[in-house]
Design goal:
Blueprint (H helix, E strand, L loop, with lengths): L5 H6 L8 E3 L2 E3 L6 H17 L4 E5 L2 E5 L2 E3 L3 E5 H5 L4 E2 L4 E7 L5 H14 L4 E7 L3 E9 L4 E8 L2 E4 L5 E4 L6 H5 L10
Parallel strand pairs: 4-7, 8-9
Antiparallel strand pairs: 1-2, 3-6, 4-5, 6-8, 9-10, 10-11, 12-13
Amino acid sequence: MGGWTTDDLDEMPVGGRRRELVDGALIVPPCPTNTHQSLVMRLGAELDRLCPNHLSVTQAVEVRINRRRSLIPDVLVTTAEAAARAPSRFQPHEVTLAVEIVSPCSLTMDRFAKPALYAEAEIPLYWRVETGDEITVYTHRLDIVNHRYVGDGLFTRVIEVTRPWPIKLSIDQIIPRHVRHGPPARPGATA
């Protein structure tokens, strides 16, 4: 079999770019936008604030599925035990929830490819955050028999779920400030 492996990823210099593998194909997405990163940061911070002690929230850490598959969720929830090792990557069985924030350049990956790969790796929960005219959060749980996700929630105002722990979170709390309020007025401008 040709293509890239995780050994190749390990040998690459650290360059601040995400590198993912899907069946040996190297994927290097463009740098995320400010809005994307602000949403990731705010969602991660809110989940971390609500997170019980037996779990841990982080962002943009590699999930190494096998030698030819390696993905980097925008936000992820892992076991506290796995997080305590301060790893540079997690194994799928250590991940409870993978979250992807959809960007214009990641539509196919985040809506189709990544959920299929996370489900095959048996990650119990997947959230997809759509960022069109409004923020919409789609939550999914793993159908372990069929190795695919089943949608179990669509939220536009308040995320309210029972897994990975009981969460009630207003979507307004994760919307980046510059999106919620628009650009600031220029000094000296009149209304």
